[in-house]
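User: For a benchmark we're assembling, each entry needs the component sequences followed by a predicted structure for the full assembly. Here are entry 17's components. Please fill in the structure.
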Amino acid sequence: MSHQEESSYERISTRIVNSSAEGCRLVANEIAELVTKKRDEGQKTVLGLATGSTPTGVYRELIKLHREGFSFASLITFNLDEYYPISSTHPESYYYFMREQLFDHLDVPDENIHIPDGSVDRADVYSNCQAYEDKINKVGGLDFQLLGIGRTGHIGFNEPGSGRDSRTRLVHLDSLTRKDAARDFLGVENVPRYALTMGVGTIWDARRIVLLAWGEAKAAVLAQAVQGEPIETLPASLLQGHPNLEVIADEAAACELTRMKRPWLVGKVPWKPRMIRSAVSWLSNEADKPILKLLDEDYSERGLADLLTEHGPAYDLNIRVFNEVQHTLTGWPGGKPRASDEHRPERAEPHPKRSLILAPEPLNDIIGMGGTLHRLIDQGHEVTVACLTSGNLAVPDADASKAAELVMDLAELSKGDETAEALFAKRALEELHEKNDFAGDSESIRCLKGLIRRGEAKMACEVCGLPTAKVRFLDLPFYEKGKYRQFRLEDEDVQKVRGLLEELKPHQLYCTGAQAEPSTVQAVCFEALRRAWEALGNADWINECYVWLYRGVSQEWDASEIDMAVPLSPAELANKIQGIYQHQTQRSQTPTSNRTLRDIWRQAEDCDQRVAESYDRLGLAEYEAIEGFRRWNGVGTAPTE
Ligand code: F6R
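Assistant: Structure for entry 17:
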């Protein structure tokens, strides 16, 4: 396929890389080459920088280059944005972030580093913004601007509605953006309402712009920015037409681009089974007909004439794909004993199976596969749920205080207030009282919060029928040592996962996170699994183990992508929601509202129902809800072809 054909839907030149790590290396090397070239010409390099999860891999690569001897002393940097109001010592300020993630580890002179000042008086904001623009102009403008993209399509903090000519200014933050930042600020009410940001016009003036996007959560917005009309409601799209702009995305972030999702619309494709299923399912949606009613004309009129030539007529294709989709459906996720498994996603034997379900954070398991978990237990399998991380970072202080008070009250009741438990609770409570709002938690607070989540996870599994003794907790060290966006997987994490796999030798393994943004807990846990899997090599049991990927919250798969679809009855769905409700600390952290937990179960319910509807539209049976799974072959992050 020519490059021209590939990108005919794309209005921005887009490079799809195999992994974010590869993309980050490319960008870091490009920056280093630019620095070298300009330095050789006796000039400084002016670099526009972003914060957030997306560019951190690039920063790590730049630090690595510096450790190997590369000097960044000739860099002048300008950051895109900063919260307002915020002090530079606030751990969530972008000033603090940039110090921690980059500048403390490079030799960029302090006077060359520019970050909008979130602590200036309101009266001085305007002149400060003007001065920021003047400084950029004075050094000759930006040579290279690095960008991420927000879920609202924002670049910098240019939220929907920002004009193409906007310049550095104070902006009001979108509620979705504030929600996305709520976890970092320990509650949405703590997220500043305003921010200072370079404008779209300021960014446009850069001589080269590279926009990075990693992970499936960015897929929809990226496709709109790259393929949609340029519109102010999606600020990243306003960059279309820039003479030197490139998007670099991993496969998960690029998966909604037409060339990835509907490649037959872009050029000639090899008609492999998965591609055929995908095309016929798409056609059924486009023609608004169930698969079995598609006609030859439907195929030829919608650009699938060559599929018809190679594998037609429509009658044959329809039956073939209908059967394939039909065969993904099963009420027996662990296989149906004593029944033919020729057309079932799972093998009949052995029965019962050892089923291991990995939850990166407690709750992921219930959201992605609470109904299937229930079925596996009902059908007699030996199920273990392993929560890989404690999830303690997501517990509000108030819940920890409540638990500590309870322990102390209990101790007092039993006149045991000098017991180790009572003393522990007392210490935790004191530390909670002394803690300032954004300080990290002490070891005892984290331990207490972890125990609270353990309790919730056990109760949720119990709702699904699993005895609490079958819920394991790995407390992977990367999580205990880290904070959101800054987790680093280490060998000890991989060893722990490996140990669990070796101990249980599952016949089937359920996990998630293969397509998540690389800094998320889910992606880090998946990477731990991938490495553990690789290290276990060709052990006999590994070759016999089926690995099933379940989805994350609000990211269901297309029916054509699913390898195993487990239907849920209304009662099973209600039970799953009951399971989600056991995770009470995951409610909104505003004292008066229970919104987040409700949001979570609604999203989970919607996802499962949307999958069921998509099966229904293809002409299959109409179910209340479906949990979908993809099979993974143990290599890379892509599901099995
Ligand atoms: C921050 C910035 C933002 C982020 C965007 C994506 O300086 O420019 O536009 O790039 O919010 O954030 P992450 O990378 O955390 O997904």
